[in-house]
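Re: zinc ion structure - here you go.
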Amino acid sequence: MMHTRFLALLATVLLASCTQAPPEQQIVNDAAAALGGAERIFAVRTLVIEGDGTQYNLGQDVTPEAHGQTFAITDLKQAIDVAGSRMRVEMTRRPNFAYFQGPQPQRQVNGIDGQVGYNVAPNGAATRVPDGVATERRIGILHHPITAVGAARNAMAQLANLRTEANESLVDVTTANGVAFTLAIDVVTKLPTRVISRVDNTNLGDVALETSFADYQDAGGLQSPTRLTVKVDDFTTAEYRVAKQTIDGDTGDLAAPSDAVKASSPPPPTVAVEEIARGIWYLAGGSHHSVLVEFGDHLTLIEAPQNDARALAVVARARELRPGKPLTELVNSHHHFDHSGGIRAAVAEGLTVITHQGNVALFESMAKRPHTVVPDALAKGPKPAMIKGIGQDTTLSDSAMTMQLLPYSGPHSETMLIAYFPRERLLVEADVYNPGGQVFMFAGPFLEEVKKRNLRIDRVVPLHAKVAPYAQFVKDASLPVPTATN
Ligand SMILES: [Zn+2]
């Protein structure tokens, strides 16, 4: 009897050692088993997750350090076609702060279908998103334990770099489709704790996009998390609570809308030039504008927005306008990522950046951060950044031009500069008054600031929308702003 049991044990040990998976594979196998088994995971066709949560406002809060602005998320529905690599996310967002579109809830619909990433506006119009955004959404499909472990367990996946840190085992996965991520599992429960991907952020460069998982519950025979937290580096960008999760339920139509499929990736930026006063040009043509200012012996640009493509096009156009004078400086209106996305391009072009002193540390860090995922102009041609902070009213003046840079702390941003041209009676501002809009959340307080400072203005020159006469600004600023409703 003893003898038989010993042989059986020996056989088991031998069998285990013959079929023992490499340690990286063992981690993935353990995770699959903890979730409910590889067979069950492979059989999953669709995953529908419904719930609510909170999103934070990375790069768009009132100061670079602030993180108090949030959107309450309701009616969240994430539908994933696992085999088809398609996903659509729908949600309602309601800001808890003075948001430029007003406090009313906004419905958001976005998706990814193969190579095509798209957004659907509340009126049903679909637009294609840039390829970088589409890439991040494809990665997003894998930021769930079931999809991540399914992809890692695939025979074509490559696994490497097993390590243990604190209570987690981590393994680097490259999927059969070539998508790379790190899978972390709990050393005790073997359930996935996190999926981490390295992605590009225009402003921050290489960042870790991480989704962590908690509060697992049964969903159709699989363990699935009901609390998901998303981070970009150390900044929490979203927290979601899952109320219902359905495996192989109805996802609805996940095909990209035809308008988005037909659209090509964005065309090169156009820069439309308008001389709005002697020596002052409006450089428009996109959603974010710039202003070029001619001094006696140099040129100064106001705003390098969005990204390399936009900022470099604006810089090139500015140099064409006055080829005899060097473009030496960039004035930045405020730190918001859509208005500072071209700061690195400006540094690469050798410009000294002038900004509110509250943004200096952020911009110095932005100029130094690695951009290897998507190398930009500064990554390809590194240069030291020259960032000058302004903490009080500053006049830049010579025989040809006088420009005052005025710090402005308002409800949209507390680290903002506005540019005032006393002779031309022009005021250049970003975001606090967008003429032609429906809602003017910040125009009232901004008009108060203008009056307090006794600025004499004929026209407001906004870095969005169109130049507006002062009378129109006063009229729009007096309109009542919408208040939150339930
Ligand atoms: Zn802004």
